[in-house]
Design brief:
2 domains; elongated; Triger factor/SurA peptide-binding fold; 3-stranded antiparallel β-sheet; Chitinase A, domain 3; 9 strands; alpha+beta; 343 residues
């Protein structure tokens, strides 16, 4: 987590919490800044305590900020969080809020400080999120009762949390070339792939337990679709037809199927694909009571992905796994002797 993410959590609610007519935003651009058309959340929270961490009180306002950090889409719906997700999001927000407070307290215990130049840069970055000085002043007034010092303390807190996490998590989660290559070499099965084909479909699906007349009508529809599909020269042109004509769920992705191994492809389709060339469009193929038209887009032979082709994704995967482990370990360590109460 970097200071952009932390500052985002600190200021997500902003003036909306106090009823000001300024859009909710983050100071770093991760959330919409005032003046760009974003709607302010309408959900309100109180200063009622929801948790206490070693004597420090965390309130409903703090919790709602974290909830919006986890589920920013709420800001597009008057601050509402879907009921089916509410408890899960609240639990995650509570855990994150307590964790950040523990990290902040640990930074203070270590007597960590923020250099004046870094503090000045963070303040300047925050101000840039506002469309005008009036919007900035309105935010400071609504969120901090006009106190620049209170705002600075919030920014300083965020930077201290970021600094400790950088030291204890980020710097230790870096994955080297050698580590990534060793993982690749020890897990060859993860980087081998079977023969596969990528294709698009336009399908006609008669009703379940279709009558002979309904099957006949389905076949007629498929033949009509085929007359439009055959002349298409590109995957995009075929896909636009799939969006318009197809009955199957793949129509929402222009009829495209992800690469499928040969043992996952219906035998009638596989038989045609084996004889087709890239870009070919099939005749109507019947699969049970369904009728489909197929366009072949790619053929990948069985083989092993080269390290240079998977290196970037592998390093990112290993980095994320290591970072999550280090964060979890830090959380457990900080909680060992902490007094945490949730209300």
């Amino acid at each position: 987590m970097n200071n952009k993410t932390l500052l985002c959590g600190i200021f997500l609610l902003g003036p909306a919490m106090a009823g000001a007519q300024v859009a909710s935003h983050a100071p770093t651009g991760l959330s919409p800044a005032p003046g760009n058309g974003a709607a302010a959340p309408m959900v309100t929270a109180t200063d009622k305590p929801v948790a206490m961490v070693n004597g420090s009180v965390l309130t409903g306002v703090d919790l709602l900020r974290e909830e919006y950090a986890i589920f920013p889409y709420a800001r597009q719906h008057n601050g509402a969080i879907p009921q089916e997700l509410a408890q899960q999001i609240r639990d995650g927000a509570m855990k994150m809020m307590v964790f950040e407070e523990l990290v902040y307290q640990e930074a203070l215990r270590r007597h960590m400080t923020v250099a004046p130049a870094k503090m000045a840069r963070a303040e300047a970055q925050f101000r840039k999120q506002f469309g005008s000085p009036d919007e900035y002043n309105a935010f400071v007034q609504s969120e901090f009762h006009g106190s620049q010092q209170a705002l600075q303390e919030k920014i300083r807190r965020s930077l201290l949390i970021d600094a400790l996490l950088q030291s204890e998590v980020e710097s230790k989660s870096v994955v080297t070339f050698a580590e990534a290559h060793a993982y690749y070499a020890k897990n060859p099965a993860k980087y081998t792939h079977p023969e596969s084909f990528t294709f698009q479909t336009i399908s006609v699906l008669p009703p379940e337990h279709a009558t002979p007349d309904q099957l006949k009508e389905g076949r007629k529809r498929a033949e009509d679709d085929l007359r439009q599909a055959k002349p298409t020269k590109t995957a995009e042109a075929f896909g636009l037809l799939a969006e318009k004509l197809s009955d199957d769920d793949y129509r929402v992705v222009m009829g495209e199927h992800k690469p499928l191994a040969v043992d996952q492809i219906a035998p009638p389709v596989l038989k045609w694909i084996r004889a087709a060339k890239i870009g070919d469009v099939s005749d109507v193929i019947q699969i049970d009571q369904a009728y489909t038209i197929v366009r072949l887009n790619a053929h990948t032979l069985a083989g092993e992905a080269k390290f240079q082709d998977v290196r970037a994704g592998l390093e990112k995967q290993l980095h994320e796994a290591r970072r999550n482990q280090l964060r979890a370990a830090l959380d457990s360590k900080l909680r060992q002797n902490a007094k945490v109460q949730e209300f």
